[in-house]
Design brief:
This protein has about 110 residues and is an alpha+beta fold. Helices cover about 25% and strands about 25% of the residues. The protein has 2 helices and 4 strands, in the order E-H-E-E-H-E. It has a 4-stranded antiparallel beta sheet.
């Protein structure tokens, strides 16, 4: 069974970039312990777009869905740590839009060992 890749495309206004990156830095470690998790990268746009890419790779679609319905849902509903602005209100999202792309890994390569 091939791994699955989920890319969350986040539209982030220039004034919110630092906020977004800080939020991802502060959540470090939360997805890494999830069953079936294989890889994470936060990709900052260099030019021509205001969209960040949040790349995650999972052993299966079921593993991804279990994370979405469990740890991710809890974190986005305020069950996680941080964001205690204004007496417990959740902070305003840094992204103005979000789209998730789904892929199956059909080929991959790693650097050859010397």
């Amino acid at each position: 069974m091939p791994s699955v890749v989920k890319i969350n495309v986040l539209t982030v206004p220039a004034e919110q970039r630092e906020t977004l990156e800080q939020r991802f830095a502060s959540r470090a470690g939360t997805v890494e312990s999830s069953d079936g998790f294989e890889w994470f990268e936060l990709l900052r746009p260099v030019e021509g777009t205001d969209q960040y890419l949040v790349y995650t790779r999972w052993r299966s679609e079921q593993d991804f869905q279990a994370w979405v319905e469990g740890p991710m849902k809890a974190a986005h509903q305020g069950g996680g740590q941080g964001g205690g602005e204004g007496g417990g209100e959740r902070p305003k999202p840094a992204a103005s839009a979000s789209t998730v792309w789904s892929f199956e890994v059909v080929q991959q390569a790693a650097p050859k060992q010397a």
